[in-house]
C-alpha cells in the first residue's frame, strides 16, 4: 500500500510531467475590443489582434496585426504589435524561469 508521501510525490511528478509537455509549445494571443466615446466597450466582443506560438525546439509562428494604409496597401498596427511583443517577452521569460527552476529541482533530487 502506498504511503501518503509516495502518493504526494507521484502526484507532484505527474504535474511536473504535464507542465513539461505544455512547455513544449507556448502560445501568446493578444486581443482588442473596439472603443468609442459614445458607449461603454463590450469586453465580451474581443477580437484577435496578434498571435505567436513558440516551440521548445525554436520553431515559431507569428501573426501580426495589419491594417489598410491611407495611401493604399497594408501597414502593421505598430502600437498593438508592440503590446503583443511585450506579452511574448513576458511569457518567454516566465517560461524560462519556471523551466530553470524545474531543472534545478531535478538536479537536486538526482544529487548533481
Can you characterise this structure?
- There is one protein chain.
- This protein is an alpha+beta fold and 112 residues long.
- The protein is built from two helices and five strands.
- The chain has a three-stranded antiparallel β-sheet with strand order 1-2-3. A two-stranded antiparallel ribbon has the order 4-5.
Based on DSSP secondary structure assignment, what is the total number of beta strands?
5
| SSE arrangement, N to C | HEEEEEH
Q: What is the oligomer described by this structure?
A: single chain
Strand composition percent: 15-25%
Structural class: alpha+beta
How does the major sheet shape up?
A: 3 strands, antiparallel
Distance between the termini: 31 Å
Residue share in helix: 40-55%
Which strand order do you get reading across the main beta sheet?
1-2-3
Q: DSSP helix count?
A: 2
* Uncertain residue ranges: none
- Give the C-alpha Rg: 21 Å
Average pLDDT, rounded to a whole number, is: 85
Shape: elongated
Main traits of this protein?
112 residues; alpha+beta; three-stranded antiparallel sheet; two-stranded antiparallel sheet; 5 strands; elongated
Amino acid at each position: 500500500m502506498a504511503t501518503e508521501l509516495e502518493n504526494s510525490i507521484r502526484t507532484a511528478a505527474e504535474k511536473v510531467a504535464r507542465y513539461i509537455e505544455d512547455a513544449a509549445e507556448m502560445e501568446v494571443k493578444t486581443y482588442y475590443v473596439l472603443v468609442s466615446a459614445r458607449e461603454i466597450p463590450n469586453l465580451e466582443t474581443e477580437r484577435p489582434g496578434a498571435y505567436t506560438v513558440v516551440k521548445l525546439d525554436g520553431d515559431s509562428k507569428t501573426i501580426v496585426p495589419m491594417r489598410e494604409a491611407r495611401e493604399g496597401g497594408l501597414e502593421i498596427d505598430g502600437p498593438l504589435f508592440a503590446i503583443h511583443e511585450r506579452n511574448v517577452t513576458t511569457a518567454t521569460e516566465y517560461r524560462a524561469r519556471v523551466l530553470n527552476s524545474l531543472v534545478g529541482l531535478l538536479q537536486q533530487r538526482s544529487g548533481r
